[in-house]
Each structure stands twice: as C-alpha cells, then as structure tokens.
Design a protein that fits this description.
The complex is a heterodimer of chains A (409) and B (247). Helices cover 68% and strands 1% of the residues of chain A. With 409 residues, chain A is mostly helical. The two termini of chain B are 29 Å apart. The chains are: A mainly alpha (409), B alpha/beta (247).
Chain lengths: 409, 247
C-alpha cells in the first residue's frame, strides 16, 4: 500500500465560500426561529400538550443517532483492524462529532428553558435515562475527540486502537441510551419496548453511513480529488447491508407489536392509518419503507451498478429521508396515538383531548430549527476539512487497496 | 425514587398561618382544635403521612365543573382560548363502559403516584415527590424538556406555552416549564383541603374525599376500607394517591 497523506483542502474557492454562506443562512434562520419560539412561547409552534415533542425532535434524534453511526467507518478501521478504512477514518470521527453538535443544538434550543442548560449539566437525576444521555453525549465528545486527536497526531498514533475501541464501546452505549429514551416509556403503546435500543443502533449504522457517503463524495468532487471505485463499491455494499438490517428490525418491531393483542390498535393506526393515523401510515409505507428502504436497496444492489455514483448518492439521500420519516412515524405517531388512560372505556366528553388522535402540523419555525441542526453539522465539517488534515490527498484504487493493482496487472 | 424533604419555612404565607396554629397548642403535639393539624412552618414534611384523594364517580355529577373552576381559580390557571396548548391541572371526563354501557363522570388530574414515571424520567430532578406523597415540579430547575409529559400515563401535565401574567403568590408558574396538580400544597401544608375537594363539597356532591392514607382513622382510609377504591391504570403498578370508586 502506498503511503496515504492526509491534507487539508484549500477552501478559498467561490463554491466553498458559497457553501458556507448557504449553510450559514440556514443556521441564522434556525437561530431566528428558536428566538421566535422562546420569545412567544411554544404556542406559536405546532407542538402542544398532546404532541409535546415535534419536528425539532425528529431532526435532533435523527442527527444524534446518525452521529454515532457516522463513527462506524473509523471503528471498522481501528477496532476491526481493516486497513482499507484507515484513510477514511478521520473524516468519520469528525463527522460524528459535528452531527452530534447539530442534533444537540436543536434539542437545547427547543427546550422551554434553553437558558438553563447549565442546570441540565449540574443537576442530575440518575434514575432518568435522559440524564444518563447527557453524560453519554459529553463522554462521546471526549472519547471521539481524543480518538480523532490520536489519529491525527503522529506522536499518539500508537494509541489510536485503544482510543478507537473506547469510542466504539461508548457510541454503542450512547445509541442504546437514545433508543431507551423511548423504550423506557411504559405509558405509550408505540414506545414501550426494549427492542428500540438495538434498533436505534442499527438505524445509526445506516443513517450515519448515508451521510458519510454523501459528505465524502461531495468533498472529493468539489476539491477535484480522486475517489476511486474501490471505496465506492465497499461503502455501497456496507450501506446495503445496514439498510437491510434496519428493515429487518422494523419488521420484527411490528411483528412483536402484532403478537401483543393490546397493541393491535396501535399497529392498525400506523400500518393501516385507522382512527386518524393516515398521515403516519403514509409516512411509514411511502417514506420509511418504500423511499427509505426498498428503493435504496434496489439502487444499491442493481445489477451492474456497483460503481455507479449517481445511484449511490440517490440511495444515500433516500436513506436519510427515510430515516427522518422513520423518526417522524415513531416520535410523532407514537404521541398522536391516543394514550389509553381508561382501558375498556369510551371517552364521551373531555376538555383535554382524551381518547382522540392528537393533531400536529409542524410550523416553518420548527422546520428551520431542524434544518439548522444539519447546517451546523455541515459547517463544522466544511471548516474542519479546511483547517485539519482529515482528507487523504487521493483515494484512488491503488492507494486504498494494495490488491487492486495486482488485479489490474 | 428520589424523595425530597421540603422545608417550607421560607414560605412567608405558611409561616404566618402556622404560627397562628402553633399558638393554639397547649403542649408539643397536642392541639386544641381540628384545624390545628397544621404543622409548624419550620417543621419539614413528614413521611408519616401520605396525602390522597378518593373520588366516588357515582356522586360526581355529569356537567358539573365546580372542581375544575375552583382549582384553576385557586392556582391562577387561566385559558388563552387555545385548548391544545392551554394548561389544565384538572379536567372532567365522561366515560362509557364499552361492555356495559354504564356512563360515569370523573375528575382527572395528577394521580400523585408513589412510583411516579414523571419523577423517574426527569433529567434534573425538577419533578419530585415529597415524602408525604405529593408530586410537584420545582420550577427553578425545570428545563422544559417535556420528557415527564411523554412519560405520564394520565396526561396530567401541561407545558406553559406562553408568558403568564397575574399569577397567584403561592402557585408560581412560568413560561417554558411543566406543571400539574399540586394537590394544593399551599392549603394542605396549613391543614387545609385542596380547592377541588372543597368546591365539590360546597356544590353538595361530596364526591371527593381528601386525607391521609396512612392514618387508619382518617375519613379517606375508613371509606377505602369499607368500600374500596381503584387506581386508574392499576396494571402499571404506580400505587396512585388518587383512587376512584365506580370505575
């Protein structure tokens, strides 16, 4: 294998500055939205006392899950010692940090009291999985930050494997915690299942890799660096396996619910759209299953398309959109489904929407806040590849794969 | 489960009331009148009591909202004309048993669970249970994450979606925090009865009994022993402080 040199990008082209300006505009719009929501109070959003977590949380949880998954490439190189992935690892670690910052920013700015972030950091109820998550987020920054430092610092390179292993374990725990935020909620039919924790882990694999692939391809295309087919072929297969695994977990999740008689109403709500669940069943079948799983699988495994970048990009974009649809179905759908407070009873009169499907219509402010989280993550990546040596000068086939040359010869 | 002992001595309002009550005592722990059940203000809340409520749905009149009106007046909970985001500490619900067609009416509020999911999930400990069983929100450390609202099986909590004006002194509320029925601690801590129970009695329905579940001689314990009382969603094993008859 040739020596692989990591080198920062020049980052002074019109395109690069334009990209930063565009992303910056999204961030400003997001911050403005957050200010608007906090200033007036949350009544100006689509969220209410029935749907307490809305579109900002869909984006936030998606990004937090994707963050841990984006570290996958680095983990494969350090933990599983696959040399092929080594040059791809620094970007993977940086992207995971950036995505987590983006996700957490949304979460914090949506709080009723974002000004009390310091309270959240200093008052811990250790029985709360949410409090545990705050520790896990901070730990992730620490472990992944150190891991990235070791990868980039020649003097510390020898310790990369250990740092990578620690970050790998930590990120599995982190996503277990994210899944458990929902899995531990006994009151809600759609959430109360320990399976959500491993399901979130496998979702992180797919969402994180899809974002990684797009960022990598864009970075190499826009900087005129060579990204060989070998990388494309490998990442494509990996994405295919992850997307299929997510689909498997989704099937098992719904089959488990279908097995439990008292969850049949919920399944009918999500799968068939009964009792006002039409939006969620559409989001499930069209967004999550068709666009987010089946079409990407077809694009990835289409015969003769293994090196096709167009289909891989399309598949990655669809996996991301499908992931957002999955989060929407789970987070919003899970709350919209009526809470069963009085089993066996029909609610004839109530002033608090008992027994009825909750209505939710996301507002522009929530949408912009969500998108600004993505923009923040991408700005961090764009700036970091300019100031740090994260990207290999070339990822042509002979550089990344010593056997490739032999095959060609 | 995190339990917090609340020392209410800083509450000026209670201080005055309790001092007056303390003046009635002729010896420590011996009081002259029934109202003298109130503890001195500097005395912490005790686990010797567990405050609870028993609601007889047979006596709860359909269409009557005395309890709701009284609660919201007592605690300064006002409507902004937006039902989806307006706070409701207590609500009236009319239900039909699908199997028998029997129709009942009942007030629904925080059930003051012994093992409260809202307390478990709160990241900062703002949701807490006093040792006497009353579940409250510490408005100073509530960050407004709404995880407690996700976790509450009774939809008993409201998020304050707008700026609040004209608050009452003893029920502080604030935009961006979560709140729910406090069992009128401001009254209970000076030996009083929650506003809803008082209003129900005043309306001559007598559907609500408030009292100490740990005192076998209290009216609530006596009635529970005689006629029993059920928990809503008893399957969740939350050991609620609010019990119902006729559900």
């Amino acid at each position: 294998m040739k020596t692989i040199r990591l080198k920062e990008i020049e980052g002074n082209s019109v395109g690069y500055l334009g990209l930063l300006a565009l992303l910056g505009a999204f961030v400003l719009a997001g911050l403005g939205s957050a200010y608007y929501m906090e200033h007036h109070g949350h009544w100006v959003t689509g969220m209410n006392n029935q749907i307490v977590w809305g579109l900002p949380h869909v984006f936030a949880v998606f990004l937090i899950v994707a963050a841990s998954g984006a570290l996958n490439i680095a983990s494969i190189s350090s933990v599983f010692d696959k040399k092929f992935y080594k040059p791809l690892a620094p970007l993977s670690a940086m992207l995971s940090l950036a995505l987590l910052i983006g996700g957490l920013m949304i979460l914090v700015l949506d709080l009723g009291h974002p000004d009390r972030l310091i309270v959240a950091m200093t008052y811990y109820n250790f029985k709360s999985i949410f409090a545990w998550n705050m520790i896990l987020y901070n730990g992730f920054f620490l472990f992944t930050g150190v891991y990235l430092w070791f990868m980039l610092d020649r003097n510390m390179k020898g310790y990369t494997k250990y740092a990578g292993f620690a970050a790998f374990i930590w990120r599995l725990i982190l996503t277990t915690g994210t899944g458990a935020i929902f899995g531990f909620i006994v009151a809600r039919t759609g959430y109360n299942m320990a399976m959500l924790a491993p399901m979130f882990i496998i979702m992180s694999f797919a969402f994180g890799l899809a974002i990684y692939i797009l960022v990598l391809m864009a970075a190499y295309k826009w900087t005129d660096r060579v990204l060989g087919d070998a990388v494309i072929v490998k990442l494509r297969k990996l994405l295919g396996v992850f997307v299929a695994a997510v689909l498997y977990f989704v099937v098992v999740y719904h089959l488990t619910n279908l097995y439990m008689t008292n969850h049949h109403d919920y399944e009918a709500f999500i799968l068939l759209g009964t009792d006002g669940g039409e939006n969620y069943s559409r989001m499930f079948w069209i967004g999550q299953i068709a666009l987010g799983s089946l079409i990407p699988l077809a694009l990835i495994f289409a015969p003769g398309a293994s090196k096709c970048r167009m289909t891989l990009s399309a598949a990655s974009i669809l996996v991301i959109l499908g992931g957002l649809a999955q989060m929407y179905t789970l987070i919003i759908g899970g709350q919209a489904f009526p809470l069963e407070i009085f089993p066996g009873m029909e609610v004839l009169e109530t002033t608090f929407f008992d027994g009825v499907t909750a209505q939710y219509m996301p507002t522009l402010a929530e949408t912009m806040l969500g998108l600004s989280g993505i923009a923040v993550a991408l700005i961090i990546v764009a700036l970091s590849v300019k100031v740090l040596n994260l990207l290999p000068e070339t990822l042509d086939d002979t550089t990344v794969d010593p056997h490739h040359k032999a095959d060609q010869a | 489960m995190k339990e917090i002992t609340v020392n209410i001595s800083r509450r000026h309002f209670f201080e005055k009331s309790a001092t007056a009550v303390a003046g009635l005592s002729i010896a420590p722990g011996v009081f002259l009148t029934q109202v003298a059940q109130a503890k001195p203000a500097e005395q912490a809340v005790t686990a010797d009591k567990r405050w609870g409520m028993l609601i007889d749905t047979g006596k709860c009149a359909s269409g009557c909202t005395s309890c709701v009106d009284a609660c919201h007046e007592e605690n300064g909970v006002t409507s902004h004309g937006r039902p989806e985001t307006d706070a409701q500490w207590i609500r009236k619900v009319k239900l039909r048993d699908k199997a028998t067609n029997h129709v009942i009416s009942l007030p629904m509020m925080c059930q003051h669970c012994e093992t409260a999911p809202c307390v478990d999930v709160c990241p900062t400990g703002a949701s807490f249970k006093r040792v006497d069983g009353i579940v409250l929100v510490d408005k100073h450390i509530c960050i407004g994450c709404r995880y407690c609202m996700m976790a509450c099986p009774y939809k008993a909590r409201s998020f304050i979606h707008e700026t609040i004006t004209d608050q009452v002194e003893y029920a502080p509320r604030g935009k961006g925090t979560v709140e729910s029925c406090t069992m009128c601690v401001q009254r209970v801590d000076v030996g009083g009865t929650p506003a809803c129970v008082e209003a129900c009695n005043k309306a001559e329905h007598g559907a609500m009994i408030f009292g100490d579940l740990k005192d076998p001689n209290s009216a609530i314990s006596q009635e529970l022993e005689k006629h029993g009382g059920k928990q809503i969603r008893a399957d969740l094993k939350l050991n609620t402080g609010v019990r119902y008859q006729g559900i």
